[in-house]
């Protein structure tokens, strides 16, 4: 697919007027188009696109679909997803700025973030999500982590999101499945670090934070060069034993263990599909959450290894 050229997003934008919504039980292609346009306005040139079943299994995964091609197929994709009770998921792939997904935040947090978020969503009644674009100079990993902590957002959010206008198919909502709604959009909005801190949405600095995914990826790159031919699998139990404690302090953080194991597997030469299959055999969390979780974990690991490999060259 041909590469798209992104232009730097403007730092000032006017909030767009909201159109009249269509019937809640039907998908809304216009909302999906507006959401896509909002991402394009802040430098996104392509999207991953896939469906997810009620049982959280990923289907028909397409990587790096150019924005214009995604938009062209949206009405067809939305109709297909609604007919077969599938969630239509996208993951933006920006060139610049950096995008921060603040998922599963409260309505109050979403309202406080409105002046700095280029997109606000209600994915289900009472469950909100905000997207913030930051320049590469402003967006270090510590700021992103503090922003997620300050808004009580999901620290493990992967960048995948149900597209606006689609139906949110989760078992707990049956039979009245809600539609993902755009709460507000401000195309092109790229706030400064100072603006974020002035709103009180950035947590205080931590003296010794647990290693993040980028840190783990860097350790893997330094520790062992990539092999072209895989010769074995990493020891999953050792990854689990070495994982930091979970938030409740009741055991290891299984998400971190899964991510680190995938980092090693990819660095040792295994492909994403093979890594997903093996993780499903080893990880209790992957078995509980389905193939979609395993796929997201393996993809994040592969992308982190690739980024850190480029930096190490």
Q: Strands across the major sheet, in which order? A: 2-1-3-7
- Nearest-angstrom radius of gyration? 19 Å
Strand content: 15-25%
Which superfamily, in CATH terms, is the homologous superfamily of the largest domain? Answer: RepB DNA-primase, N-terminal domain
Largest sheet: 4 strands, antiparallel
- DSSP helix fraction: 25-40%
CATH architectural label of the largest domain: 2-Layer Sandwich
* Top-tier CATH class of the largest domain: Alpha Beta
**Strand count:** 8
Question: How would you describe this structure to a colleague?
Answer:
- The chain is 39% helix and 18% strand.
- By secondary structure, it is an alpha+beta fold.
- A four-stranded antiparallel β-sheet has the order 2-1-3-7, sandwiched between helices. Strands 4-6-5-8 form a four-stranded antiparallel β-sheet, with helices on both faces.
- Helix 6 (213-223) runs parallel beside helix 8, helix 6 (213-223) packs across helix 11 (291-312) and helix 8 (254-267) packs antiparallel against helix 9.
- The chain is globular, with a radius of gyration of 19 Å.
- The protein starts with 28 loop residues before the first helix and ends with a helix.
- Residues 1-24 and 217-228 have low confidence and may be disordered.
């Amino acid at each position: 697919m041909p590469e798209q050229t992104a232009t730097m997003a403007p730092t000032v934008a006017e909030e767009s007027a909201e159109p009249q919504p269509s019937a809640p039980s039907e998908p809304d292609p216009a909302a999906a188009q507006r959401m896509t346009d909002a991402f394009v306005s802040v430098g996104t040139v392509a999207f991953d696109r896939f469906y997810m079943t009620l049982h959280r299994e990923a289907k028909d995964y397409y990587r790096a679909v150019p924005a214009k091609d995604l938009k062209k197929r949206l009405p067809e994709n939305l109709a297909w997803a609604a007919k077969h009770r599938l969630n239509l998921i996208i993951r933006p792939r920006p060139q610049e700025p950096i995008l921060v997904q603040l998922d599963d935040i409260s309505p109050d947090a979403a309202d406080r973030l409105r002046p700095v978020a280029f997109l606000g969503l209600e994915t289900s009644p009472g469950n909100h999500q905000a997207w913030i674009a930051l320049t590469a100079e402003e967006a270090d990993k510590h700021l992103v982590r503090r922003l997620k902590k300050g808004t009580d957002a999901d620290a493990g959010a992967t960048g995948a999101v149900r597209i606006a206008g689609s139906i949110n198919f989760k078992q707990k909502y049956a039979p009245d499945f809600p539609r993902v709604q755009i709460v507000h959009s401000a195309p092109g909005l790229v706030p400064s670090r100072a603006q974020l801190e002035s709103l009180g949405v950035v947590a205080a600095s931590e003296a010794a934070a647990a290693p993040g995914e980028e840190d783990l990826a860097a350790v893997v790159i330094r520790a062992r060069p990539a092999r072209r031919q895989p010769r074995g699998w990493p020891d999953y139990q050792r990854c689990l034993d070495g994982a930091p404690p979970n938030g409740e302090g009741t055991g290891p953080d299984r998400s971190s263990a899964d991510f680190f194991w995938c980092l090693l597997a990819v660095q040792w030469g295994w492909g994403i599909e093979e890594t997903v299959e093996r993780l499903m055999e080893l990880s209790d969390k992957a078995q509980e959450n389905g193939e979609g979780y395993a796929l997201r974990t393996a993809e994040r690991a592969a992308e982190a290894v690739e980024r850190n490999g480029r930096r190490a060259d």
